[in-house]
C-alpha cells in the first residue's frame, strides 16, 4: 500500500514546524487531557502517538507521569526534545510501533489517527491494544465528518494535510471490534471553547483494555 498520504503530511509538518509548534498551544484539548489522566494510576507510563512538538508530553510530565513520544517529523521531534527533555522521543510510524506488549498504562492519540487512510485504522487500534497493559486507557481524538480529503487551513500555514473523518458510531464500532471497552465518546465544537477557535467538530473517546 502506498503511504504517500503520510509522507506528504509529514513533509508539511517539517516545513511549518516552528510556526505550528507556536500555534498548537491554543488548540490543546484541556478537558480531555484532565479526563484522560483521571483514569490513570500514579506515575503511569504514557505513550503519546503523533506527539508533534511535545505540547501534551510536557503536560503529562508536569503531572508526574513517565512519557514516551513518537512522531515521524524530524523537526517537530527536535522541538519536543528541547521542550521536554524529561520525556523519551522516537521517530516511529504509528502503524509499526516497536514496543513490547503490555508496556503502557495509557496511550494518547490526539489528532493522529486522522492522518491515516480509513482502512489502516483497525490495524493501528490493534497495535494500541497490544501495547496497553490490562485495564490500560486509550484516548483518541479525531475530526467528525465523513470521507477523506486533503485540506489547507490557517493552522497548517495553508499547506495541505490529509484528513480522514469519522462518525461517532463508526469510531465506537472500530474500538469495540478490537476489544476495547468504550468508557465515553462524545463530540464537541472547537468554537464553543473560545471565540477565536475554528468552527470544527471533534470526536473524543476514552476506552479501556479489559
Automatic annotation (TrEMBL):
<dbReference type="Pfam" id="PF13649">
    <property type="entry name" value="Methyltransf_25"/>
</dbReference>
<keyword id="KW-0489">Methyltransferase</keyword>
<dbReference type="InterPro" id="IPR029063">
    <property type="entry name" value="SAM-dependent_MTases_sf"/>
</dbReference>
<dbReference type="GO" id="GO:0008168">
    <property type="term" value="F:methyltransferase activity"/>
</dbReference>
<feature type="domain" description="Methyltransferase">
    <location>
        <begin position="46"/>
        <end position="136"/>
    </location>
</feature>
<keyword id="KW-0808">Transferase</keyword>
<protein>
    <recommendedName>
        <fullName>Methyltransferase domain-containing protein</fullName>
    </recommendedName>
</protein>
<dbReference type="GO" id="GO:0032259">
    <property type="term" value="P:methylation"/>
</dbReference>
<dbReference type="InterPro" id="IPR041698">
    <property type="entry name" value="Methyltransf_25"/>
</dbReference>
Amino acid at each position: 500500500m502506498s503511504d504517500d498520504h503520510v509522507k506528504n503530511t509529514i513533509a508539511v509538518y517539517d516545513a511549518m514546524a516552528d510556526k505550528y509548534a507556536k500555534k498548537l498551544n491554543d488548540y490543546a484539548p484541556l478537558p480531555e487531557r484532565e479526563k484522560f489522566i483521571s483514569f490513570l494510576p500514579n506515575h503511569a507510563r504514557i505513550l503519546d502517538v503523533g506527539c508533534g512538538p511535545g505540547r501534551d508530553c510536557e503536560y503529562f510530565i508536569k503531572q508526574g507521569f513517565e512519557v514516551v513520544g513518537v512522531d515521524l517529523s524530524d523537526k517537530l521531534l527536535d522541538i519536543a526534545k528541547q521542550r521536554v527533555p524529561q520525556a523519551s522521543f522516537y521517530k516511529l510510524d504509528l502503524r509499526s510501533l516497536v514496543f513490547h506488549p503490555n508496556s503502557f498504562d495509557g496511550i494518547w492519540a490526539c489528532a493522529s489517527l486522522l492522518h491515516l487512510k480509513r482502512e489502516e485504522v483497525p490495524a493501528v487500534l490493534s497495535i494500541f491494544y497490544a501495547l496497553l497493559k490490562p485495564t490500560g486507557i486509550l484516548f483518541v481524538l479525531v475530526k467528525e465528518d465523513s470521507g477523506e480529503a486533503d485540506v489547507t487551513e490557517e493552522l497548517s500555514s495553508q499547506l495541505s494535510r490529509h484528513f480522514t473523518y469519522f462518525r461517532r458510531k463508526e469510531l465506537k464500532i472500530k474500538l469495540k471490534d478490537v476489544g476495547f471497552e468504550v468508557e465515553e465518546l462524545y463530540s464537541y465544537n472547537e468554537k464553543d471553547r473560545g471565540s477565536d477557535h475554528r468552527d470544527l467538530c471533534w470526536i473524543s473517546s476514552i476506552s479501556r483494555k479489559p
